[in-house]
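Quick one, probably user error.
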């Protein structure tokens, strides 16, 4: 019975993360995987990164307990990008090497995802390319957005639950199992990061969670979910990253340089705490996911109305730092009491690709 299979996978993932996280923090300290804050950081205390490693292990354990062809690309994505992020957390990779490895890994995951489709070879090649770009793009978007306490853990919880609900709607055991595994793994990590960050996800965590959610979105599309439902849980991260990039390009800024001008970072700059920003982005993602879920009803007029409402919500979010900044609170100053290292990390502990670095 697939209900027992799902329960075992989800419970094992949660147990692994809860048991391993307290051991991972001193391990990262011994390995000198420490984020030192700089002028563009959202944190002021040197903090270990690499806290996403137990999530990677938990997800890999969970996926081995699930039957079906979809488990292979999911496990490959989590394993490859988790390993890549772990190496980057410990040793650092050059921009070219990191980009090359991301391209290779994304292409392999994409080939696994579309190989089961019975389509002409030319169309399969195009779909493989599009899927590879999607996987690599969202992995980096998730990495860029991991910049304040709890934000990516909370986002993974919301998105994982959304995919599990969509899977339940379609009686798809894989989406239910791995959606819940992502949610439970991220939830088990949050106590170590959301209030007082004792450890950051690091590249190992942000890469792996980004890859897991990217694969779940593609799997949902392949299995017939409407695009609004499949992409709704990820749309805030996509919109914030894309909007910030185009704004910097249009302003003539050197977009490859580190910065802290994402919408969620600007919320911190106008006086909101990390926890308030995390709750805001999580609530917005829940709302957009619910609006996207309306597409499952098959009612065109209602679907169109909810699509437009979802776009409006994203537009308000992108303009929200100006609209809803805390009145009377000064702009938060940057930490000045610490030396500024080479800016490769953010407050979530995730290192940034040289091609589009994001600040701490």
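Nope, works fine. Designed sequence:
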């Amino acid at each position: 019975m697939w209900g027992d299979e799902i329960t075992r996978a989800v419970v094992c993932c949660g147990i692994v993360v809860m048991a391993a996280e307290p051991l991972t923090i001193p391990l990262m300290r011994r390995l000198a995987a420490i984020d030192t804050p700089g002028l563009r950081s959202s944190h002021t205390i040197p903090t270990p990164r690499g806290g996403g490693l137990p999530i990677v292990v938990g997800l890999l354990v969970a996926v081995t307990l699930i039957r079906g062809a979809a488990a292979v690309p999911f496990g490959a994505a989590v394993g490859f990008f988790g390993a890549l992020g772990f190496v980057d957390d410990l040793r650092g990779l050059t921009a070219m090497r990191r980009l090359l490895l991301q391209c290779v890994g994304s292409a392999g995951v994409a080939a696994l995802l579309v190989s089961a489709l019975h389509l002409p070879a030319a169309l399969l090649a195009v779909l493989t390319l599009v899927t590879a770009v999607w996987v690599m793009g969202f992995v980096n978007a998730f990495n860029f957005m991991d910049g304040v306490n709890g934000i990516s853990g909370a986002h993974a919880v919301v998105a994982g639950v959304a995919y599990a609900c969509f899977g339940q709607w379609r009686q798809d055991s894989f989406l239910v199992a791995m959606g819940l595994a992502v949610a439970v793994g991220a939830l088990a990590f949050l106590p170590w990061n959301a209030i007082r960050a004792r450890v950051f996800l690091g590249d190992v965590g942000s890469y792996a969670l980004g890859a897991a959610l990217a694969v779940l979105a593609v799997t949902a599309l392949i299995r017939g979910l409407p695009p609004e439902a499949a992409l709704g849980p990820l749309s805030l991260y996509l919109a914030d990253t894309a909007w910030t990039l185009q704004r910097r390009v249009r302003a003539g800024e050197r977009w490859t340089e580190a910065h802290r001008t994402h919408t969620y970072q600007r919320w911190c700059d106008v006086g909101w705490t990390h926890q308030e920003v995390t709750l805001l982005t999580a609530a917005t993602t829940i709302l957009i996911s619910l609006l996207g879920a309306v597409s499952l009803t098959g009612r065109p007029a209602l679907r169109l109305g909810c699509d437009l409402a979802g776009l409006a919500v994203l537009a308000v979010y992108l303009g929200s730092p100006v609209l809803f900044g805390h009145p009377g609170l000064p702009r938060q100053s940057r930490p000045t009491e610490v030396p500024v290292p080479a800016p490769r990390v953010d407050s979530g502990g995730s290192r940034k690709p040289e091609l589009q670095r994001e600040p701490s």
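The CA atoms of residues 244 and 250 lie 10 Å apart.
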